[in-house]
Amino acid sequence: MIFGERIRLRGVEREDLPLFVTWLNDPEVIKGLIINLPLSSLDEENWFENLAKLPPEEKPLAIEIQDENGWRLIGNSSFHNISLINRCAEVGIFIGNKDEWGKGYGSETMLLLLKHGFETLNLHRIFLRVYEDNHRAIRTYENIGFKHEGRLREDRYYHGEYFDTLIMSVLRSEWLSRESQEE
Asked: Whose CA is closest to 55, among 86, 87, 79, 85?
């Protein structure tokens, strides 16, 4: 497990799937994700079965917070499209439990993922894609050090409109500079 101040990241378990199905069928939750069709329990079960085929560093990590009853699942995160030659990877995250939105758990998760990516996986560049209308996520990413790299124009069709996809990244040198400033 990977521990932060208020969260921990752990491997996804079969018991997590019902919550994922609920969250990934919520229009507010999926607005910022690539998912745009209803998801069945069977779809999620198939996704889970295919996780065994992924390299260990690309397996998704459940995001949990601790409360009076112990650790509680609130979302999911992962590295994918890892290039060992270029030492870069794409990162993704979602907080599915809407009661936990706006509490900084997404920021803490992303900072923990950056630390893990640069210090454990030895990555050089970590990037993400975010839709132009996801202002809250863009601000979060900017605040933790992601830089705008590019724009895929009208890359996403959602509810009758086209939206641009922004590409943002953090380089290892930027991460190290930020870490040394915080010490």
From this structure: 79
Give the domain ranges of the chain: 2-182
Round to whole Å and give the CA distance between 118 and 111: 11
pLDDT digits (tens, 9 = 90+) for 1-36: 899 999 999 999 999 999 999 999 999 998 888 887
- Per-residue model confidence (pLDDT) at position 36: 79
| Single-letter residue type at 177 | S
| CATH code 3.40.630.30 for 2-182 | yes
Residue 75: in which H helix or E strand, if any? strand 70-83
98-125 residue pLDDT tens: 999 999 999 999 999 999 999 999 999 9
pLDDT-above-90 percentage for the chain: 85
Write the CA distances from 59 to 9, 13, 30, 31, 137, integer angstroms. 11, 11, 20, 23, 23
**Beta-strand pair 2-3/7-11:** antiparallel
Q: How many residues does the chain have?
A: 183
Place of tokens 């790299």: 149
The pair of structure tokens assigned to 104 is 């900084």
